[in-house]
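Q: Structure for this?
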Amino acid sequence: MTEFDHENFMQAIGNADEINELLRRYGVKFGIYKNGVFNEQFFPFDPIPRVISSEDFSGIEKGLVQRVNALNEFLFDIYHDKNIVRDGIIPEDFIYISKGYLAECEGITPKNRVYSHISGIDLVQAKEGEWYILEDNLRIPSGASYPLIARELTRIAAPQAFSENSIVDNRGYAELLKETMEYSNCGGIRAILTPGRYNAAYFEHSYLAEHTGSVLVQNDELFVEDNILYQRTYSGSKTRIGVLYRRIADEYLDPLTFLPESLIGIPNLMEAYRSGNVGIVNAPGNGVADDKGIYYFVPKMIKYYLGEEPILKNAPTYLPFYEEDMKYVMDNLDRLVIKDVAEAGGYGVVFGSDLSKEKLEEFRKTIIAEPRRFIAQEVIDFLDLPILDNGETVMRKADLRAFVLTGEKTKVWASGLTRFSRNPDSFVVNSSQGGGFKDTWVLSR
Amino acid sequence: MKRVDFYYSTKLTFDDYVHDHSFALRIIPLGTDTQKILSCDLNITPYVSVKQTVDAFGNNVTAGYLKGDHRFLDFEIKGTAEVDNTRHRIDFLPCYLYQSQYTHPDEMLYTFYNDIKTECTGTVRDRAEYICNMLSDHFRYEQGNTDTSTTAAQAFLKGKGVCQDFSHILIALLRMDGIAARYIAGLAFCDGETHSWVEYWTGDHWESIDPANNCPVNDDYIVLSQGRDFRDCSIDRGVMFGRHTKQLQLVRSVLS
């Protein structure tokens, strides 16, 4: 960190206004649903980058590659022989009660056995400098386009910052993503499937399609014939799709396999996939591996599948499902953070310290009634990062979403999405909860 | 062992032209340890190219896509099988132990189970038969009260239903009792349409039971598909486009 001169940078960049104005003009938006109404909000950008030293990054990198490789092994195992359950490492209940487990995917082996092509792993750095994994996102992690475009604009606004500091170029993301998609290509063009412009991440879908040379498609131009996925063209001909980076949830993918009422899916896509005629990025059924309840077992998976000690630690986690942990949770509820395993996007996260005495008692009963539904974690004292607030530098909580891509090899993108909480008292940084983002700079030396 | 000729047909008729019609059929019987398929012909009209796969639950899936305008889709199977229920099937999946979309119990089903569980003892077979008897005493066969979307809990509340409802409720109760169970869709001598029954896992193989008739399953049954519940066993699922407002489905099945 010492290699980076903050003051100098701040002078170079002046004020965030210019970049925010550019972002607005480029249409970088983040949609959220509030009270059932879709609002496309501007996702606030803070110009002060998070800077990660080259040494620090190489440690994170090794840890993330190890973790994602183990998670991929786990997914193959769960949808085939289930050895990890048979050997008693993970209790059966945690697999089959998980909403992310899809029995429909039993026995399917995706091309080259890659399940999690694009993994968004959320980490935090504690005050003492150590990094902890907060959660894994192996379904459709979003957000990679934000640091990409922010970097582009910062480069325009403050070119000196890049000549004076040795920052790893993050423009390689598109190439990395293309490589990853190609590795799972079953013969045909690359396509990115979006549910449409009212989706929270529509901006990102179009951005990534453009930068990876993929076609951006919606379901009404796709069909499956003879178990092959095609795009219909205006001239009435058809183009075969070999790999589909889908940005819609599993349940909506194929109305003939999953939710029959899905209007955004492709009928018989799963038949084409099972037949090995199309790659689906990420694989359906991955939710069983990024379930908050399964998170607890990831360090055990690393030992089980890879025979290695985990390089990156989980935040200390307790499962009320285990009697011993339940006792600890009951005794320390007022200082733990409790997460509902069924929720995502920062919803269903409760800090014991925020609850009144009555609420705490009520919550205690809920946990006892449904122990499998919750995990409890120690509150990690995150490292605060500086952000600009009306021209002043203030300190706020922030996390890091690292993007780990698995093609022939598993690689970590040397950048990432740093999200911060704009509320000084909050630890919740999710964009759907009104947080902002920063670019993440990895120094090359 | 018994040699059985089977025939099954569905005629789908629409009140206006439809197009871009994708479908997935589960009508080709499984070749298993208990039923050997000696022959099976599938006919679909209008002509459409189809592909076969085997799904997660072991079912034969026939997938097709009919692009042009059409007002009907008919499909039929005709064939011969050798059925021998003295043999056993062992294709297990752990998900059969867990409640699924159609079988999630409500308070009423829990209460019913709690009331009968003290008497429910012995081997898995004893328990399954006991639960099936209790269900038979409390639930009546009557058509017209439920449909294919009715869950076990909804049907149980009504107190009457058809074979699908019997199967769902029995599966729910068996799973509550810690017995893995699966839904079977197929053809039976006693039925003019399709029939449904249940298989439960004894610990090393599947046993069949027919809750709607409260009887064991003999060699007069042909399995078409199996799964966690009706959702995995739909004979035909389809998505189509057009201005049609109605679809009429005629089903016929014959075993001889």
